[in-house]
């Protein structure tokens, strides 16, 4: 079987490791940028009531019309722009790649950046080009970006804004220069939009190659798996052709529509996460040896003393706290850990554990 696998499976897939999510049972989960807050009891019962109307024997609405309308209303999507739904924004990243993929074509993003851009580039048979960010503050290296765009002529440029895993937002003028230089599509991935005041949504239409991608995951609905892509209708009409029918299931459609009608609840939660991010940043600043990177997302990247990230990660896990160890993920992330902003209690436990482990 081994030889048959080796001769059949594409070499670039053979060389990969499957996306690994560590088990988190019994741990305080601060590794995946989730909203730590559950739903208020009254909202839960009202939601369960709406599920009574679901017909699980029927396929879902293929376009998710009601959900699209709820998103347009709640999220300030420009009325002249198209909207496309995905099973998480991960699926939209893949749909974009499938729409343009041809041998020899390139996908470009920054490093360190969101790993799915690279993975999806490979899955779709394109080449991935990663342009390093500036080492000192993870800002864009504009000359390097423009040079890479000129040299590689990428079909797609993905830019997370704010960026994961660094937490910063790139300079708007730099982004504009990139959009203007790019021969293909530029997708501004605003997964962390609930935690910043800046967005490219209002700039849609200023360039014919700009699309904005969002998700409801970080506002508190990660389990529903819903992402959305906004941009000029002619682009979305083409991308819609590679969407598999019924990609957003009926439970997600009904539940997300319901949740968006109660967006104030989630806005209050994300606002409190923003406040807690400030408190956590301050508390982490009091720990000797930690270098902090300012964040406009719901996580904070920290650099630990050289060679200690693995032991600090393990020490936190022994104290029942799961974070993300990024040491080894990219040269610019040596000794780095990514800490999701949790509830005040979770953050306090994480800070105490860090103090104990680093003492
Ligand atoms: N984009 C960025 C920048 C992310 O960090 C993430 C999730 N970590 C996603 C997209 C994927 O989000 P979703 O849950 O909608 O697939």
UniProtKB/TrEMBL annotation:
Organism: Imhoffiella purpurea
Residues the record lists as N6-(pyridoxal phosphate)lysine modifications: 218
Catalytic activity annotation: L-histidinol phosphate + 2-oxoglutarate = 3-(imidazol-4-yl)-2-oxopropyl phosphate + L-glutamate
Keywords: Amino-acid biosynthesis, Aminotransferase, Histidine biosynthesis, Pyridoxal phosphate, Transferase
SUPFAM superfamilies in UniProt: PLP-dependent transferases
Cofactor(s) in the UniProt record: pyridoxal 5'-phosphate
Protein name as annotated: Histidinol-phosphate aminotransferase
The organism's place on the tree of life at top rank: Bacteria
Sequence ranges assigned to domain Aminotransferase class I/classII large in this UniProt record: 27-354
GO molecular function, one term: histidinol-phosphate transaminase activity
Cited CDD domains: AAT_like (cd00609)
UniProt family annotation: Belongs to the class-II pyridoxal-phosphate-dependent aminotransferase family. Histidinol-phosphate aminotransferase subfamily.
Keyword Transferase belongs to the record: yes
Biochemical pathway: Amino-acid biosynthesis; L-histidine biosynthesis; L-histidine from 5-phospho-alpha-D-ribose 1-diphosphate: step 7/9
Quaternary structure, from the entry: Homodimer.
Gene that encodes it: hisC
The UniProt record lists the keyword Glycoprotein: no
EC number annotated for this UniProt entry: 2.6.1.9
GO biological process entries: L-histidine biosynthetic process
């Amino acid at each position: 079987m081994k030889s048959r696998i080796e001769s059949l499976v594409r070499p670039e897939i053979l060389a990969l490791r499957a996306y690994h999510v560590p088990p988190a049972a019994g741990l305080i989960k601060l590794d995946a940028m989730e909203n730590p807050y559950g739903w208020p009891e009254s909202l839960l019962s009202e939601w369960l009531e709406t599920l009574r109307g679901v017909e699980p024997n029927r396929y879902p609405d293929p376009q998710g019309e009601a959900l699209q309308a709820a998103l347009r209303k709640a999220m300030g999507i420009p009325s002249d722009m198209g909207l496309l739904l995905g099973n998480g924004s991960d699926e939209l990243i893949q749909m974009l790649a499938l729409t343009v993929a041809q041998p020899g074509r390139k996908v470009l993003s920054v490093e360190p950046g969101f790993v799915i851009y690279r993975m999806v580039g490979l899955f779709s048979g394109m080449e991935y080009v990663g342009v390093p960010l500036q080492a000192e503050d993870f800002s864009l290296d504009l000359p390097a970006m423009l040079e890479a765009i000129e040299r590689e002529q990428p079909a797609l440029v993905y830019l997370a804004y704010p960026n994961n895993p660094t937490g910063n937002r790139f300079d708007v003028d730099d982004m504009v220069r990139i959009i203007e230089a790019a021969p293909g599509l530029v997708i501004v991935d605003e997964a962390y939009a609930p935690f910043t005041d800046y967005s490219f949504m209002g700039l849609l239409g200023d360039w014919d190659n700009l699309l904005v991608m969002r998700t409801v995951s970080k506002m508190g609905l990660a389990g529903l798996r819903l992402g959305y892509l906004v941009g000029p209708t002619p682009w979305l009409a083409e991308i819609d052709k590679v969407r598999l029918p019924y990609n957003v299931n009926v439970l997600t459609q009904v539940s997300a529509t319901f949740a968006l009608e109660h967006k104030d609840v989630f806005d209050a939660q994300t606002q409190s996460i923003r406040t807690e991010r400030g408190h956590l940043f301050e508390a982490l600043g009091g720990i000797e040896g930690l270098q902090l990177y300012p964040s406009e997302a719901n996580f904070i990247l920290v650099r630990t003393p050289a060679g200690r990230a693995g032991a600090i990660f393990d020490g936190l896990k022994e104290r029942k706290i799961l974070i993300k160890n990024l040491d080894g993920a990219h040269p610019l992330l040596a000794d780095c850990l990514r800490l999701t902003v949790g509830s005040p209690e979770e953050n306090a436990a994480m800070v105490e554990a860090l103090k104990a482990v680093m003492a």
